[in-house]
């Protein structure tokens, strides 16, 4: 069992292994409830209520249980609690920082050569306040096989397209039945060899990595790759480590993409601990992203020179395989720009 302090000083017991659907259904969505549970000032709740008007709060209990009560600067809390900084209009920060709304096929994004991305859903397991798709029109996501068939026809018409990325939202917020059928249909396209799942569910609700998920990942002819999103070493508890182990033991490569965030991981010691922990768990530190300049997230931005210094320090402290590539994504670019 896990526990979280509440204002009265009692302990709230949180079952460690609930079904992932019920965990998602009972996630905390009210800023006042979150602040009460974590013994935070009511002024923070009022600010959070204002900031959450356009992008609601969503925090599952397994993630909430890792947050230190009474600490407004806790690096996990900073990622999920709406703040008034989200309401500021900052030049250069816009609703669609990567130009994704201009896709000619709704729900399908042509990322780079040989790869396409399907926006599978607008649902997530957590609402990260720095999310670059926080303003995305998710109504275009394919909800049924009839919706995704036009997307797959477009993919099939590209003879050099060898990889399909499932993103969102979070694709693992979809049922295993839905995802396994989508992957079966993708596997009917001969030139597609691999598919990738970009997800934060194994971190925020580790029980999402279950036998059904592992079963259909093993069953496809396509090579599966799971890309997770951990920004701070304290996001990895025993249940998260076990979820990663299940994926790796099933033969699924697991990579991590982190975002460089002010007040979360803009510290060489924190990044060293994160990358070392990931390597210990057989998860490859893949990318460290410069923040995408989405409206509402300017207060998370770390200057690029600082990011370069941090990565240089990681190279002095860690073996090369444990140092992520520091990158930035730009609209229309042929690939991610390597910053360090």
Write up this protein.
The protein has 340 residues and is an alpha/beta fold. It folds into two domains: 2-87, no CATH class; 100-338, Alpha-Beta Barrel (TIM Barrel), CATH 3.20.20.70. Helices cover 32% and strands 14% of the residues. The protein has twelve helices and eleven strands. The protein has helices spanning 20-25, 31-37, 42-51, 61-64, 75-80, 145-156, 176-186, 201-204, 211-219, 238-249, 268-280, 304-317, and strands spanning 2-5, 11-14, 108-109, 115-119, 163-167, 194-198, 223-228, 254-259, 284-289, 325-328, 337-338. A nine-stranded mixed β-sheet has the order 3-4-5-6-7-8-9-10-11. Strands 1-2 form a two-stranded antiparallel sheet. Strand 7 (223-228), helix 10 and strand 8 form a beta-alpha-beta unit. The longest helix is centred in the last third of the chain and has 14 residues, at 304-317. The protein is globular. It starts with a strand and ends with a strand. 40% of the residues are buried. Mean pLDDT is 94; it is low at 1-12.
Terminal-residue CA separation: 42 Å
Total domain modules: 2
Overall pLDDT = 94
**Major β-sheet profile:** 9 strands, mixed
What's the short version?
The chain is an alpha/beta fold. 32% of the residues lie in helices and 14% in strands.
For this entry, give a set of tags.
nine-stranded mixed sheet, 12 helices, TIM Barrel, alpha/beta, 340 residues, two-stranded antiparallel ribbon, single chain, disordered N terminus
Secondary-structure blueprint:
Layout: E1 2-5, E2 11-14, H1 20-25, H2 31-37, H3 42-51, H4 61-64, H5 75-80, E3 108-109, E4 115-119, H6 145-156, E5 163-167, H7 176-186, E6 194-198, H8 201-204, H9 211-219, E7 223-228, H10 238-249, E8 254-259, H11 268-280, E9 284-289, H12 304-317, E10 325-328, E11 337-338
Parallel strand pairs: 4-5, 5-6, 6-7, 7-8, 8-9, 9-10
Antiparallel strand pairs: 1-2, 3-4, 10-11
Helix pairs in contact: 2-3
